[in-house]
Amino acid sequence: MAFTPMMKQYLQIKQNYQDAILFFRLGDFYEMFFDDALTASRELEITLTGREAGEAGRVPMCGVPYHAAGTYISRLTAKGFKVAVCDQIEEAGSGRGIVRREVTRVVTPGTVLEGLEDKRHNFLLAVAGADKEFGLAAADVTTGLLLATQLTGEKAAAMLLDEVARLEPAEVLLAGGNNGDKLAAAVQSRLRTAITTCDAAVFLPDGAGRMLDKHFGPAWAQRFGLHNRPLAVRAAGGLLAYLNRTQKNDLRQFGRIQVYSAGQYMMLDTAARRNLELTASLRDGSRWGTLLWVLDHTLTAMGGRLLKTWIERPLLVAAEINERLDAVAELAGDVFLRDALRRALNGVHDMERLAARVVYGTANARDLLALKGSLAALPAIKSLLAGGRAALFKRMCDEMDEMTDLYRLLQTALNEDPPVSVREGGLIRDGYHSEVDSLRMASRDGKKWLAGLEAAEKERTGIRSLKVGFNKVFGYYLEVTRANLELVPADYIRKQTLANVERFITPELKKLEETILGAEDRLVQLEYRLFTEIREQVAGQVRRIQRTAGAVACVDALYSLAEAAVKGNYVRPQVDDCDRLVVREGRHPVIEQVLARGEFVPNDVRLDDRERLIILTGPNMAGKSTYMRQVALLVLMAQAGSFIPAAQAQIGVVDRIFTRVGASDDLAAGQSTFMVEMSECQTIVSSATRRSLVIMDEVGRGTSTYDGISIARALVEYLVCRVGAKTLFSTHYHELTDLDCLPGVRNYTVKVQEQGEEVVFLRRVLPGRADRSYGIQVARLAGLPAGIVERAREILLALECRRESAENTAVVLETPDAARDGGVRDVPVTAGAVLTELASLNALDITPLEALNFIVRWHEMLTRGDENAVRECRADF
Fold first, then answer.
1. Is 625 known as a binding-site position?
2. 490 labelled as ligand-binding?
3. pLDDT tens digits, 197-209
């Protein structure tokens, strides 16, 4: 089938990009054809039209304006599509035949440049390895951030998935094959993200090493600390190979690899980040109601991204934590310094993303002016830092380059109000380039000549309505109404006839037209060439821009923490390497923000050698979960370098925070609510150390009462005797309160005040234990029908009567010697369990066969226990 030459060109290019939507540049539009047009019109909600394609007839077509293409591309990549951008690589009319076109960039979810959230990274991840060894590399093409790490050991796979969830990548690169398929399934079970399968060869050591050699030059392994991380090398090399293939530029924004390890930061698993609502709320995934929402007072996008990273990766070294706290303390204590820094930072734009657009060649004149405005703010920021006492301020001052040379270039070269398009002229400032000045003068003078010509012709002809006009087809002309045609001189040459006017030209007008239009065309081309040269000069300074942007981001994040401290009346925590966690009058940083001032009830916490595990009992809705999350958030804030909402605090550095909070299933992974709960418990007991903080809320509620009590009790015993982590354990199983006989276990309860049938929640956590949960009162407060509430009271009374008539279930605890040895002795079944079940039976409601089955089962239970239990049961009968 014969196609038109243009359509043949389209199909030849499309053949190499079958997995992408091809944006094919035609004049001022990017057009899409065939199936791409059908897909794009549906996903972008734009009009579907058609175009004649030769013998094939009319084929589907849709298009978007080239100047708005970035927005449409972002919308497509957000839905998981890839877009191949095909541009004209020569000017129309510069050669024979059809204009040459090539794909200049393939945009994927992980490489999109526009339409992104300012204070959030857009990561492309690559993973190499399998089983117990993985390398991970993450790149943000919009900022030039390139990270790499290596994870090994029994828990490497779980750590990898937690790190992937933390980074929230827009796209993940995996090697093809069975291992890649398994990993892809595991990643997509954690978060929705685009998965791209690559040829496994790009992750092989030789190919990855050559790619890193080519990009970073020799000795990169020693320079970045990758010499003993072969899997991280493979991941980073594979990622750069993919970027080279899709971005088709030199990727100058990636000047170094930031290598990190699990031991540098507090690792927070997915459950902890979700349950503590650090950066996304459980309700709708937004920032509102999160810790980031409370602490983020940043004034720049760069600072916002860095603050988010600090919250997600708290520090583990007390000296580094206190370095941040020193800087925050200085800012919080000096209102004049803070105000001056706020005014200076307000003038800074997103230097990291501006630099990336410059490198990509997509930055326009307004982007460079935004960069110039940011450079203008640097001297004031640096001066303020130089006067500071904090060591971190002095280090950031040294990192900051004022780049006065770059500022002068942009100041002298660019107009203050340029157009959006770089091909419309008006970019270059007067006085920067002599030829621009002369062409601009010719253009301006020519228009003055035209105005003079119009006046002279009116005078010569006596036609007062005569005017000089212009259009793209006919150029400049003299327009005369039909009523005045008899006054037209003989030297006027008719150019165009309209309904009510005639248009003419003269030799003089034609000469002026050639001068003016020639000057304007040459001026636009010259300004574009000069602008691209200026942009290239800026691109050559990308390292300086990025280094300074990093320093500004750090200062902005510190300012944000100081602002939060002042607004929230926070105090500086004492952070050291002790094994204590003591907070006086601590408050939940988020909940106190949504309550009226003074309404939140502060509480103390003490976890040390004498009080290692707190069993927290109390009514529903009394605030147990809030209290436990509050403690975890205060520790995390302190180790991120933030002041905390409390009266006083001493916090020994915690290596990890673990949470088992709430009820949720994982249907995609085939796990029930209880299975998820048990999986999270398994992670805690297998990964927590003595320096960890564990919060566990209502463990065992997803199964039967006896199963739940047994599991909860065994977990407490294990945490006390084997793990030794600082633990808050809330429960409605009041049977667990007798565990305070174990060393380091203390009972605390949330106090309530009963006023008849009413319950007042005091929100105070104090030593003691609860014997009721007030669930029926809470059900009434929730609005359950009165009939249900009353029936529940009757059933509760009957159950309590039965319980009083039976023995309490006896559970054998480990002996003091066993506790010292860290062992847990087997617990025999006793007579109490049988008698409790017997007391709950209604003998009149069971058949003789059912009664016999009960007796047989009780006999088996007792004979499996010890002889004393059997004698005890016989005596009771």
1. yes
2. no
3. 988 888 999 999 9
